[in-house]
Amino acid sequence: MVALQFLDLPVQDPPSGCPKEESLTLRQVYPSPPAGDPDAAKYTIETILHCLSSQKWGMKRVYRAIMRIESTGDTKTVICKVAMGRTHFAQLKREGRIYDEHLKGLQGTVVPHVYGFFAGRGFDGKTGVLVMEECGVPLRMHYSHYPLGFKRVLIVWL
Q1: Distance CA 73, CA 81 (A)
Q2: What is the Cα 35 distance to its own chain's centre?
């Protein structure tokens, strides 16, 4: 099983009566992991550097983090998009599928390399994480606030 483990799960505090999870292991959904491969990759999110975005009462977050690739021992700075709850999980899973099915050939050149979309269950239900390479500087404001000319240039470059 290809897995992603968070050593220190970056979620909001659980409701009273629910134990705080110290770590969470998620299984890879996209790209489809190789069947029966005993040496399948394992990734570990070792350090959350900082939160880049938090929306929907913390149920959708974006983090810059340090990830270790267990098979090689290499570490990479990555972007982790985290979605908690059924609706946000489904949206992020759909984004992961788009990278896997439609943008695979562009990964690492015009779109970030995607390590995968990983799924599991936390105290608040379904949890999904899309892990991709860090490449570039985030936009200073939401895409919808930029002028139409800027948006057209972005689309042309995609």
Answers
A1: 23
A2: 22
User: Where along the chain do its domains lie?
Assistant: 3-157
- pLDDT, tens only, 32-66: 765 655 556 789 999 888 888 888 766 788 999 99
The token pair at 146 is 């930029």
Specify the DSSP element, H or E, that contains 118.
strand 114-122
**Spatial CA neighbour of 68 closest among 117, 109, 7:** 7
C-alpha to C-alpha distance for 118 and 31, rounded to whole angstroms: 9
Q: Which residue has the higher pLDDT, 120 or 40?
A: 120
Instruction: Say if pTM beats, i.e. exceeds, 0.85.
Output: no
Report whether 4 contacts 118 (CB < 8 A). Answer: yes
Instruction: Give domain 3-157's CATH superfamily.
Output: Phosphorylase Kinase; domain 1 (3.30.200.20)
Summarize the confidence of residues 101-127 as an average pLDDT. Answer: 86
